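Notebook entry, structure prediction.
Reason for the run: the old model in the group folder had no record of what sequence produced it. Starting over properly, with the input documented here first.
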Amino acid sequence: MAVHEHPQRHPGFHLPSSRRNRTTSAREPAVSERTGTRAGRAYAFASLRLLIGFAFLWAFLDKTFGVGYATPSGKGWIDGGSPTQGFLSSVAAGPMESTFHGWAGDTWANWLFMLGLLGIGIALIAGVALRFAAVAGTLMMALMWIAEWPPAKTLSDGSPSLSTNPLVEYHVIYAVALIALAAAAAGDALGLGRRWAKLPFVSRNGWLR
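New structure, fully documented this time:
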């Protein structure tokens, strides 16, 4: 007897269309749910990326043009002001206090700090070079953490430091967030991450991803 006369015995037997449709329909919600979860996660990371990117870029713009918030009007970098003089000269605790005082206002320190703010801000907003931005941003946050030295209860003049946490404060949180964004490839959603990754020089050098 021909094989096709006993489909139930054939190894390649398929479910009747009605049962197959029911099985497929039962699986569709789970697949859709997983897809929705991934999309939600991607957009959540993208939102965090854009917010942190704006924070870095705003700091650059304020210090460059003296918008009138942290940097008074007329005291911007283009007006001859120093982006590092005020902060580094006011360091009053920690093992690098005298070192930071020596760096305050130096041309190289101003340029390095400002280019760091600009580069990290643009990279985050565009969603490109997130690994490089994470390394540069973490280094910057580490130096600023040392400058503020949260473990100190008192400053070098004996006054209270007003530190609220000896280890974890906003510089640490920014650094961890930058690393998380790079690890999650957060530039793919609401950014140019996918196009950036396809560029020949980026695909050959993964650290630029």
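Summary: The two ends are 62 Å apart (CA to CA).
The old model has been moved to the deprecated folder.
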